[in-house]
Design a protein that fits this description.
Bound molecules: biotin
Low-confidence stretches: none
Distance between the termini: 36 Å
Largest sheet: 7 strands, mixed
Oligomer: single chain
Structural class: alpha+beta
Length: about 260
């Protein structure tokens, strides 16, 4: 798809669902999350905005990983100014995971699940990841701004060897490629409802889509790795696990690895 057509289609799709909301489009950028953060710091007001790139040269994932961002994916960041305390940070990622899941399912008909905390999978393959970042006010208690960055593998992709077993793309599972501009706009519309969304409702949708609850997983945490049964995800998004020694723990960071 030509550059102009890609941009035109996204602009049109956004103007239909989110008229007047600033949208910044890039042919190639380091990271849309970085662009969103720079914009947040440079503007006088507190305007929310979306940032989308056709490719990223320095796409970032959680835990300092890079995120492959070649043509054929959706790389989008949403800058928002949530009334959220620092303890509630996880809610951004949890809400975004529900939005991504529902947007993909509504537009493609495939069924996807969420691996705590930020991975969207289809048949065990990662289709999408979420990286939420932000800055807090001087007291460190409330968000000054937040950025929700989302990467989705949309078109059929030949992943490098190290990703071939773990990553997947929508086109391969759906049998056809969804329109990236429609997917982006549908997702943006859902994300933009964060402030008015009911946490009880999106948390329950998150739990329903969780592929982790009830399974045994390897917990990868700063304090070391261990196996545990995943019991629940609590109302703040923490993972409730029971270790092999029968000890119950709540995790608010780290990640899990599940054999599917
Ligand atoms: C992960 O899987 O660990 C999170 C990946 C998040 C990737 C997206 S792509 C758009 C935005 N810009 C970035 O540099 N990262 C996020």
């Amino acid at each position: 798809m030509g550059e102009d057509c890609f941009f035109e289609k996204i602009e049109k799709a956004f103007s239909e669902v989110l008229p007047g909301v600033p949208l910044f489009l890039y042919e190639n950028i380091g990271s849309t999350n970085d662009e969103a953060k720079e914009y947040a710091l440079s503007q006088n007001g507190k305007k929310d905005a979306f940032f989308i790139a056709r490719t990223q040269s320095a796409g970032r994932g959680r835990r300092g990983r890079s995120f492959l961002s070649e043509e054929g994916g959706l790389y989008m960041s949403y800058l928002l100014h949530p009334s959220l305390s620092s303890e509630e940070s996880l809610k951004l990622t949890l809400f975004a995971a529900v939005c991504v899941t529902e947007a993909i399912e509504e537009l493609t008909g495939i069924t996807v699940g969420i691996k705590w905390v930020n991975d969207i999978l289809c048949e065990g393959k990662k289709l999408s990841g979420i990286l939420s970042e932000g800055a807090f006010d001087k007291g460190g208690r409330f968000f000054e701004y937040a950025v929700i960055g989302i990467g989705i593998n949309v078109k059929k992709t030949h992943f490098p060897k190290e990703l071939a077993d773990i990553a997947g793309d929508i086109e391969s599972f759906a049998g056809e490629c969804p329109d990236i501009s429609r997917l982006a706009a549908a997702l943006a519309k859902k994300l933009s409802a964060f402030e008015s969304a009911d946490p009880v409702s999106y948390m329950s949708r998150y739990r329903e889509k969780s592929i982790a609850i009830g399974r045994t997983a390897e917990v990868i945490s700063a304090g070391g790795n261990y196996f545990a049964k995943i019991l629940d995800i609590d109302c703040d998004g923490a993972l409730v696990v029971k270790t092999e020694r029968g000890e119950q723990k709540k995790l608010i960071s780290g990640e899990i690895s599940i054999k599917l």
